[in-house]
Design goal:
With about 425 residues, this protein is an alpha+beta fold. The chain contains 16 helices and 8 strands.
Length: about 425
Amino acid sequence: MLTQELSRQYVNILKEELVPAMGCTEPISIAYATAKARETLGEFPCRAELAVSGNILKNAKSVTVPHTGGMRGIKSAFSAGLAVGNASAGLEVLAGVENGTLAEIKRIKDTFNVEITTPETARIFDICVTLYSKNHTAFVRIADTHTNIVCIQKDGETLFEKPLEKRPQKTDRSILSVENICDFARSVDIDEVKDVLARQIAYNMAIAEEGLSKNYGANIGKVLLRSYQPDIKITAKAYAAAASDARMNGCELPVIINSGSGNQGITASVPVIVYARGLNVSEEKLYRALCVSNLITIHLKSGIGTLSAYCGVVSAGAGAGCGIAYLLGGGKEEIKHTLVNALAIDSGIICDGAKASCAGKIATAVESGLLGLNMYYNGNEFFAGEGIVKDGVENTIKSVSRLAHEGMRETDKEIIRIMLDNE
């Protein structure tokens, strides 16, 4: 049952998760750690050591870092953070980079001595930056989430430290349930969520328009619009894919993330916004639908974890399908069945890092969400015992969490090994 206290906590969860970030969040986290290490050192270093987990390597290896003139990869993120990163800006650490500093970023990338390693003992999300100058050293470690600094040292002296298990204080995600999310979306005072959702609409639609207006990556959004008879479903998929086209390939516009991911933030929001505009529903109804899509995405991702071999946009695509179900007048039953159907369809999509093909996976995830919705409206559904589907939506969510968090650990390691072949 949704109480007033639970409703307040759901508002807090939205405010904690729907925050701006510029560029793919893993390389941006590297830039943030590097900027913080340089701030701690107090001077420009002469060499560095960068130790990252396999999952960080996977997600930073191939993606374009914003404000670097198209540079890609881990060393580019490190170089930008070292040259001009503003540690106080968090995930917008590179927002203030100017064109005049590109030469310095490139110089560091080409000439600076940085040793990059991938320790087997690292946590799933782990970034350690050590900077050395002639007389001093500085060390910064980020673990578990993108801005969660767990240790800062200078000259071997610990300036800040907290237990690895102690994550940033956030509202408990275990309070989420599909039942209560539906009640919350229907009853919340819109003024409590309007600002955070209006920002999501503005930011994520702006980068979608950017992706459709210029050439980015594989241009999945444009391909969809050019190759199929345009309708609201194709348009929703195309806009979401185009936003990722731009984001994965150097666009400098920020996005509003969900569960630590810009692509998930895009997928959970942009299709819902496109449908709302196509259906000409009220602004209030769009906000309520976005409450559904965002919170269901967060609910799914909470059991999976920040990084996994399970592609995160699968969760967000299912969330978007649920948000669109709400726009079409669906209640709890329609939303629950949409979610189960969507998860049954595409839960096998792997995450092999951030790159241009993420846009294609977003289009597929949105398609699955919409197919799951249309199945139910046509009197069809997947039943308990069919594959990973269990009796009840929450039990099916637990199945997906188990698959992604436990079952795909070895898959994740093999993906990383494949990606590093011939490197």
